[in-house]
Design goal:
The chain is an alpha+beta fold. It contains 15 helices and ten strands. The strands form three sheets. It has a five-stranded antiparallel sheet, with helices on one face. Strands 6-7-8 form a three-stranded antiparallel sheet. Helix 2 runs antiparallel to helix 3. It is elongated, with a radius of gyration of 30 Å. The protein starts with a strand and ends with a strand. The mean pLDDT is 85.
């Protein structure tokens, strides 16, 4: 069986043989000057493309028919079963996930379980289309598809588009990686990314509130009643502007006491950013008090679990936060979490150069600070207007007195 379609150089093709048995496809490549090529599958299922040395279509048709006839005479072999979604995830978790930060590893495993529940464990990844993609988005928005709680029951909580996009970006990353990762037989785990180009959900006006100073002061006032470690974590989050996941995994050896610096290791940072930042007096004092209390040194974790043999659990920091809100008589809002302190840090230090702010808070890109962390405020805008030179007023010049720059009219 042979079939010819199209007449234009970019659409013309010719097919010989039967699909799934001895199919040979003949076409042209407009990016290579209209060169002819044939595509077929090897016995192990790999797709192969071969370019012809001529541009005679009639002759190329005869060659394709001959190839299809030759393939049809070969004995039929049983091909390996297609890679399932569960098998692909298992490979990714085993080979790629361990190279990520702890919080990202946790998200990888959690999001993969959601994909398996939505698409099915035995699903062929190449059969996932736009309908399945949109179904995942709708189920996540409604809360019908959510990570399971402590008792194994799903938490039916509505999820914002930013979190859904974060989940789907992982799926795209897995599929992209699979198109490059070898299958041990000369091919790749996936021939293509089936979800490439699918639209990600976006929030037009996402809520990114920063922690108000009075709210922080009220939580700090009750911090000791919650736990001594909670007070330390709260102060470090406020004074360093770092993520609580990085703060939680600090070791005493990361604190450089003589220089009043803290080392943020790349393996504990979400972006793998290894850097040093100075400690404020409040942070240094709180660390010193906590060190006296625990008498821990060396590579011991600053936040140890109750057994004293490992780092404090992630869930404990959230339970401390909720308890402090209750003791301080504060209304709970999921947006008022640990990350709101990071936004507070970025906004309060908006007057310093962006490069210094990036290094202080552990950001890699200044654009991230401007887009997601800093907020405009009326006080800063009014101060800028007061400092603006009125029309017709002489331009101010800077004079140096005793090493200080002083504006002169």
């Amino acid at each position: 069986m042979a079939k010819s379609t199209g007449s234009h150089a970019s659409t013309w093709s010719y097919k010989a043989g039967e699909r799934g048995r001895n199919r040979v496809r003949l076409s042209v490549d407009p990016k290579r000057g209209g060169r002819l090529f044939v595509e077929f599958r090897e016995r192990d299922g790999r797709k192969v493309r071969q370019y012809l040395s001529h541009t005679n279509r009639e002759r190329a048709k005869q060659d394709a028919d001959a190839m299809a006839a030759a393939f049809g005479q070969e004995p039929t072999i049983e091909r390996n079963d297609p890679l399932t979604l569960q098998a692909l995830f298992d490979i990714y978790v085993r080979e790629v996930t361990p190279t990520k930060a702890e919080g990202t590893r946790y998200h990888d495993r959690s999001a993969m379980q959601l994909f398996l529940r939505c698409f099915g464990t035995d699903r062929n990844p190449l059969t996932i289309g736009l309908r399945e993609w949109q179904r995942f988005i709708l189920q996540r928005r409604s809360g019908n598809l959510a990570p399971k709680g402590p008792q194994g029951t799903p938490r039916k909580t509505k999820i914002g588009d930013r979190q859904i996009a974060y989940d789907l970006k992982l799926l795209l990353s897995i599929f992209n990686w699979a198109t490059l990762a070898g299958d041990g037989k000369g091919g790749a785990l996936l021939e293509r990314n089936p979800c490439k180009g699918f639209p990600l959900p976006t929030e037009t006006r996402p809520r990114r509130p920063r922690m108000p100073d009075d709210r922080y002061q009220r939580m700090l006032a009750v911090a000791d009643a919650v736990h001594a470690d909670f007070r330390l974590a709260l102060v470090l989050a406020h004074e360093t502007g770092h993520r609580v996941s990085s703060i939680r995994q600090l070791r005493w050896s990361d604190i450089l006491w003589d220089r009043k610096l803290v080392c943020w290791r790349g393996e504990t940072d979400k972006e793998g950013n290894h850097h040093l930042t100075p400690l404020s007096e409040a942070a240094s004092r709180c660390l010193t008090e906590n060190r006296r209390r625990t008498t821990a040194i060396g590579n011991a974790f600053v936040f140890q679990n109750d057994r004293g043999d490992d780092v404090r659990e992630r869930c404990r920091f959230r339970s401390w936060w909720l308890r402090s809100e209750k003791l301080a008589n504060l209304d709970h809002d999921d947006h008022w979490g640990w990350h709101s302190l990071r936004r507070k840090f970025a906004t309060e230090l908006k007057d310093i150069p962006l490069k210094d702010l990036c290094d202080l808070g552990g950001w890699r890109s200044p654009q991230t600070i401007l887009t997601c962390y800093q907020e405009s405020d009326e006080e800063t805008m009014r101060r800028a207007l007061l400092n603006r030179r009125p029309i017709g007023a002489p331009e101010r010049r800077m004079e140096s007195r005793n090493g200080e720059q002083i504006a002169q009219s």
